[in-house]
Amino acid sequence: MDGPKEGGLRNVSSTCSISEMDDFDLSRLLDKPRLNIERQRSFDERSLSELSIGLGRGGHDNYENTYSPGARSGFDTPASSTRNSFEPHPMVADAWESLRKSIVYFKGQPVGTIAAVDHASEEVLNYDQVFVRDFVPSALAFLMNGEPEIVKNFLLKTLLLQGWEKRIDRFKLGEGAMPASFKVLHDPERKTDTLIADFGESAIGRVAPVDSGFWWIILLRAYTKSTGDMTLSETPECQKGMRLILSLCLSEGFDTFPTLLCADGCSMIDRRMGVYGYPIEIQSLFFMALRSSLSMLKHDTEGNEFIEKIVKRLHALSFHMRSYFWLDFQQLNDIYRYKTEEYSHTAVNKFNVIPDSIPDWVFDFMPTRGGYFIGNVSPARMDFRWFALGNCVAILASLTTPEQSMAIMDLIESRWEELVGEMPLKIAYPAIESHEWRIVTGCDPKNTRWSYHNGGSWPVLLWMLTAACIKTGRPQIARRAIDLAEQRLLKDGWPEYYDGKLGRYVGKQARKYQTWSIAGYLVAKMLLEDPSHLGMISLEEDKQMKPVLKRSSSWTC
Ligand code: GLC
Question: Which parts of this chain are annotated as the region Disordered (predicted)?
Answer without folding.
Answer: 62-86
